[in-house]
Amino acid sequence: MIPVRRRAYPTLLILVSIGLLALAAGCLGTAETDDYPPWNLTLLGDTEIVLSLDEIREMDAVEGYGYAVSTVGIRYGPNRYRGVLLTDLLGMVGGVGEDDLVYVSAPDGYMWVFDAAQVRGEELFTFDENLHEIPSPPLQVILAYDCDGKPLAHDNGGPLRLVVISETPDVITEGSPWVKWVDKIEVRRR
Ligand SMILES: Nc1nc2c(c(=O)[nH]1)N[C@H]1C(S)=C(S)[C@@H](COP(=O)(O)O)O[C@H]1N2
Ligand SMILES: [Mo]
């Protein structure tokens, strides 16, 4: 009995070890891809540029108040957003002509199209807290990466969300152009 059991142990040990190694390899692989997936933004215009989150954070930053209303009337904000101007990003791939359209999209398939005026923050609808339309104060369209001093959370469209900002906290804009999880911005010439 005893010699038999002694012979069985090494075999068992080897099998268990192989199993543990396979499990460990699987866990490590999952952790690597799930923890901090790298995020890249593709800019498409006259040329194509791919920017990392770090490269976007190194660009000139702007800040302002973002306050949105969703299609079902839920208000989000006001919050302080920080990011880069959409016009600065587009300038890196040849800029936007008056007749061009800009397609901003995300991996979930969502897309919003801006014309040249909207890219500059013009011709967007603005509302007061009672959702009555107001004449538009100066607005800026930014690709935001911080909200209230913290990196934009995934639930709030992070790491990169298109946000319309104003100088004062009392200006509400429509939520539909606030594209969450932006990974591609494309200029289409017309
Ligand atoms: N990527 C992505 N962004 C999106 C949407 C979406 O479905 N996918 N919905 C848009 C619409 S229609 C609205 S009203 C707001 C809703 O913001 P919320 O999802 O934070 O409530 O996000 C906008 N951004
Ligand atoms: Mo919406």
From TrEMBL:
Signal peptide: none
One Pfam family recorded for the sequence: Oxidored_molyb
Segments forming a coiled coil: none
Occurrences of domain Oxidoreductase molybdopterin-binding (ranges): 39-189
Protein name: Molybdopterin-dependent oxidoreductase
